[in-house]
Amino acid sequence: MADVTFEKVEKRFGEVYAVRGVDLAIRDREFVVLVGPSGCGKTTTLRMLAGLEDVTAGDIRIGGRSVTHLAPRDRDIAMVFQSYALYPHMTVEKNLSFSLRLRGVPKAEIDRRVQDVAKILGLGEHLQRKPRQLSGGQRQRVAVGAALCRQAGVLLFDEPLSNLDAKLRVHMRTELKRLHHSFKSTMIYVTHDQVEAMTMGDRIVLMNHGVICQVGTPLELYERPATRFVAGFIGSPPMNFFEARLVAADGGAAVELGGELRLPLPRPELAAQAGRPVVFGIRPEHIVLGEGARPGAVRVPAVVDEVEPLGHDAIVTARCGAGVFQVQSEHYAGVKRLDQVDAWFRMERAFVFDGENECAI
Amino acid sequence: MTGSAWGVRWRRLRFLLASYVGLAPFLAFALFPFYWMLITSLKADANLYDLRSNPFWFSRVDGATGQPYHKDIIVPASLTAGPIRWEIRTGAATTRSDSAVNPPAIAWIGDQKVLSPVDGTLAEIRVPTGQVAHPNEVIGVIHVPNPTLTHYRYLATTPFARWMQVSLVTGAAVVLITLVLAVPAAYGLARLEFPGNRGIGIAIFLTYLIPPTILFIPFSQFVGALRVDNTIWSLILSYPTFTVPFCTWLLMGFFRAVPKELEERALLDGATRLQTLRMVVIPVVMSGILTAAIFAFTLSFQEYVYALTFISSTVNRTLPVGITVDMVRGDVYFWGPLMASAVVGSVPVVILYALSLDWFISGMTTGAVK
Ligand SMILES: Nc1ncnc2c1ncn2[C@@H]1O[C@H](COP(=O)(O)OP(=O)(O)O)[C@@H](O)[C@H]1O
Ligand SMILES: [Mg+2]
Fold this sequence. Notes:
The structure holds two protein chains of two kinds. Chain A is α+β, with helices and mostly antiparallel strands.
């Protein structure tokens, strides 16, 4: 059993908090993605779990056993470093088997595991090469393979794909997911890329400024973001935000943007809080252009600033009285700069966040 | 098809040519001293001190007279006339007059010796055995071959081999001591965090900057107190005082260049700190350690001041001291033997460099990260 628990874990570098009050429970054999902007404390969290960084306060447990004060090698953890960290003087085979040799695993067993991993990762022909004779993608595979060979209870990845080109990255994403299904390890994967997080994680842990903002499945984070930050971080292109005020209208509730534009909300209970300053948010994919209007959508007249066609759809940047927003729409044929268009806001998919603490309402 | 293939080949050739043309001035600059050393060591003295000959190459004829280099065998003015006796035949080799305590005689007049002035081959005997020779008479001619190995043959008559041995043993011992002390020190200073880390690193470098010419007097007191004066131990113990700081400083740079992740991965893989050092860090900085070893060896191989002052017996001299004491007499420089010693003396260093060249070329951490 390799379930991982963080309890009020804290890390300070001098006076600066890198990680604060992290409480997190990761189940055995789960694939969890730690995501957040650069400098938010993801790597620090991972390194504390690995034992490469002291914990300032709190407790970390693996399989129910506290590892907070154990040496890295006693934690049953393998790690794939962002820089790969291959031993340059060893062949691929020696790189893969290094930890097994140190741990005194019998020769036959080492050979079997190295062959297995080499086969799965397509490294069979390169076993006798040195790292410098490999391409970037192959080095990355060796790094992953070395961690897999260990068959450690917990496998850590620190941005393992960030040095690959875009195409290889997408390929390795699927590959790693597949490996997770066939290996029995708990995997914790760090990335700053929300697309990677969405596509790979069983669950996502979103961090910012050293604290956890929200934990949940990709869909939960997408559909029920707890804060404005989560809503803005998950999804591409990012959600549109407007400063707004809650108002009562026609027996229901509405948001008033920029003092003139009134958009009715399908949430009558908010009418009681009329006057409260809020942030109104709606994703580009939940705004429809022109004739694509649906029941429940509200018309907002706008002027087109920019059209970026992607083929199937386009990202249209438009301006209304309340500000600039982006639309992701299939109905972009014939739309050009400075056109007058009708943008239809699908209010049932809209979000309202508190104007002060930015929590979802 | 062929046209474009030729084009490619021509472009590649042009690139090669350009590379070599660019490299040529540097090569000429770097190799000229070695060239000079080598031809000087092979020139006969007659050629060496012939100011009218082309100094960049060997000459066979005297610049002044236009005759081939030769030496007349002249009866010294102090000898009285008398019947001459030859024991060697024309065509036989003569040895250098300065190569033995008593230079070999080439002829006798009565029981007095006519000495051979220079080495070469006896070309002509003008006064056959039994005839009378007079003071100042030219009785024979010796041909001086050029280029010649005479300076190298001369080395065999000096304690050159012994000096070489002393220098090599000292160098090897100093390298060993230096690495044993400098490798752990450099690793500690480069990687472990402790108070005063930076200060100690800089202090170590500063000790290297103190010139040996200031230190040799206090050092000779130590050497005397330890009763190792006049032995090779005086050098083996004093050379590390400059090789250890220098190599520590040098190695710190190499250790710093090892990505931290490599060690962290080793720790996660199950290695202890010592195993990490032995199985990962040291193999990765092997080129640095070899560099340090070569520096330590070269520094002690060429050291002069300590070797001159701590050792006075001829047989325990190091190569540089032995050569300069034996082959510079007063203000006379025996350029041929000096240069021959330099050529032979640089052989160990050349071998050392050649053996470790592969390590330098292959680079250090290529492929470790990214
Ligand atoms: N060794 C360190 N010394 C001081 N500050 C550090 C150190 N490592 C990380 N930090 C700080 O801790 C914060 C979190 O860093 P990190 O965990 O590397 O972020 P992430 O991996 O999410 O980009 C950053 O502000 C960073 O500057
Ligand atoms: Mg990071």
